[in-house]
Amino acid sequence: MSITSLLPGRLGFGTAPLGNMFRAIPDEEAAATVDAAWDQGIRYFDTAPFYGAGLSEIRLGDALAGRPRDAYVLSTKVGRVILDETEDPSARDLGEKGGLFEHGRHNRIINDYSADATLRSIEDSLRRLRTDRLDIVWVHDVAQDFYGDEWLAAYESARTGAFRVLRRLREEGVIKAWGLGVNRVEPLELTLDLDEPEPAAFLLAGRYTLLDHERALQRLLPAAAARDVGIVVGGPYSSGVLAGGQHFEYRKAPAAVLAKVDRVKALAARHDVPIKAAALQFSLAHPATVAAVPGATRPSRIAEDVSALDAKVPAEFWTALRAEGLIAENAPVPGA
């Protein structure tokens, strides 16, 4: 099944923040945010066991309980198994993402991309999400940011384990689509060069944004478009720094990034363009990108995302960004 025919719209809801990313949020706030997404017409929800050691899945499952299952599309991820035993969340080895979910549950997380672990992960996710089926399953984080020089070994484990299980589940009709969900382009380029896996789509976080897109433009996006492999854009606001936050790449944004954001914001203000509209519409302008899944933990943010998708952005704004070297010369822009 083509991912474009499966997704209900171009805007989804990324639920990593519901796993207490960066801060602890009350259950009531998490539930209200999911309710706001539903009320705003969003019908695609993405989560993962990794987000708060199952907390995001639990909260999303609770919030969607009672909603018609055929009315929404649900994706989660495999590659991490959540155990009943506990550990110190702040002491986890998360590569470049240390401390990302230190406010989440204390359940121990193990990395495992084998066939058996993939099936167990799916079974556990179904239980936490309180549902009988998943629509899309992403193989999570087989990339340099989590595994460093060992990322190819993690990738190979996923190729011979998770990839083949998910392909079989799709062929059997258990799931509708699968792919990789990562923060780097290299694993996706490598996958496109393989004959056997045939993923329907990729979830690429943080690599096709106003602040960081040139690497993805070189090879990945043209190749994905040519093969009809849709790209779901995660983190269109670059971990929040393009939406008023202070994080970039899940850490405090460095001065150079903040300076670039200030330049983008100055042009946006000059052309009366909401910065969220600029970021979201840019990420969706490439022919390969099929949806974006920004995250949120406050109901008001959802309304901002919906408005950003429909906001009028003048062509002169994109021309000004290109003239100042803030977007690549070959980057597609809305309306072009």
Topology:
Elements: H1 3-6, E1 13-14, H2 27-39, E2 44-46, H3 55-64, E3 73-78, E4 80-86, E5 107-111, H4 115-129, E6 136-140, H5 144-147, H6 151-160, H7 162-171, E7 177-182, H8 186-192, E8 201-205, H9 214-218, H10 220-226, E9 230-234, E10 247-248, E11 251-252, H11 255-270, H12 275-283, E12 289-293, H13 299-310, H14 315-323
Parallel strand pairs: 1-2, 2-3, 3-6, 6-7, 7-8, 8-9, 9-12
Antiparallel strand pairs: 4-5, 10-11
Helix pairs in contact: 2-3, 2-13, 4-7, 12-13
Provide structural commentary.
- This protein is an alpha/beta fold and 336 residues long.
- A hairpin with a 2-residue loop joins strand 10 (247-248) and strand 11 (251-252).
- It is 39% helix and 16% strand.
- The protein has helices at residues 3-6, 27-39, 55-64, 115-129, 144-147, 151-160, 162-171, 186-192, 214-218, 220-226, 255-270, 275-283, 299-310, 315-323; strands spanning 13-14, 44-46, 73-78, 80-86, 107-111, 136-140, 177-182, 201-205, 230-234, 247-248, 251-252, 289-293.
- It has 14 helices and twelve strands.
- The protein has an eight-stranded parallel β-sheet.
Span between termini? 29 Å
Largest sheet: 8 strands, parallel
Task: Specify Rg, calculated over alpha carbons.
Answer: 19 Å
Low-confidence stretches: none
Q: What is the multimeric organization of the chains shown?
A: single chain
Features:
336 residues; alpha/beta; 8-stranded parallel sheet; two-stranded antiparallel sheet; globular; 39% helix; single chain; 12 strands
Produce a short descriptive summary.
39% of the residues lie in helices and 16% in strands. The protein has 336 residues and is an alpha/beta fold.
